[in-house]
Amino acid sequence: MSDGKILSVAVVGCGEVAQIAHIPNLLVASDKYKVTALCDISKQSLELCSKRFGINDVFTSVPEMLASQVPIDLVFILTADQFHAEQIIQCAQAKKHVFIEKPMAQTLAEYDAVERARLDNGVVIFVGYMRRYATALERLKEEIKGKEIKYVRVRDIIGNNRYFTSQSGMYQQYFRDHPASAGTELAKRRDANLIENLGEERAKSDPRNAHGWSLLHSLGSHDLSAMRDVLGMPEKCVVATRSADDGDQSWWWTALFQYKGFKAYYEMAIDEVAFFDAHIEVYTNDSRVKIQYDTPYVKGLPIKLTIQKQLPNGDYSEQVVRPTYVDPYTLELPILYDAIVSGKEYKTTPGDAKNDTVLVKMVMDALVD
């Protein structure tokens, strides 16, 4: 239970993740949060979420919402990645706390601008790396603490998102009534961001670069961030490879990261098999410790830890640890609340999130086609 303060929340972006996860979770956590406003450029999305969730105050732009008299303590930003940094800064300058879906920003300069806005305005900016708040991840870190790591495998090879979202039980709907100008602006920003990150020559040298950067920076940020949480930052990316799908896409990626004393092998892809194969496995001399993530879009699938080891008497042991059935989206909420209300420290800060862009740049720099 909370200490009595209820945070007023505005949700910006009423698409898939808002309908399936964030708005329902906020409504259930009514001892801590109250959703007071919705914002989206799609009027059909606004109408659906307003009626479905009983939220009357709706807006079609962030400045319009911030200028209103609707009470807002915290803004959940769930929009297209290319607009994240701008919208975070707008909210921070209005003295609103922010929960931002990953990736937080698109370029190193954007991360720095967001961090300045956080410091200048004294607000919490909480990046939604929900996998890092899974209880099983903390159990993994406890299990390997003090042990000499020999090798690590990091994998995120998952079926197409629609296989899982269609079974979420939330009856979400998708709309395309977006102004044409929004799509044009998004494409413009995507191109400019890629040039800023890679340089103009490299950005334009291969049509797969834009798609690859986007995939690594979005899906890839889940496991790259969790890898950092467990192991810290690698010294370098030794080598990286990618596939050539349909000419301008690259759905399959591998990379090898060098840490002090060991290497971490990274695999990431989206295929057409309805199986969510996302895990981190740490090998030591006498144990193998693996956290296995299930899709967050289907409630009640536990995130488990498997510990395989040789016992002192020579027996082989396999232990499965299931700390909780509570999903990481829900586990984030009390931590976010305590950061805002009590000033408690939290790990998914803008400064922390910047390291994912550093990692993606490492991968692109080590790329061998």
TrEMBL record:
One of its GO terms (cellular component) is cytoplasm. Pfam families: GFO_IDH_MocA. Signal peptide: none annotated. InterPro entries: Gfo/Idh/MocA-like_OxRdtase_N, NAD(P)-bd_dom_sf. Keywords: Coiled coil. Residues 130-157 form a coiled coil. One of its GO terms (molecular function) is nucleotide binding. The keyword Coiled coil applies. One of its GO terms (biological process) is NADPH regeneration. Residues 8-129 form the Gfo/Idh/MocA-like oxidoreductase N-terminal domain. This is Myo-inositol 2-dehydrogenase.
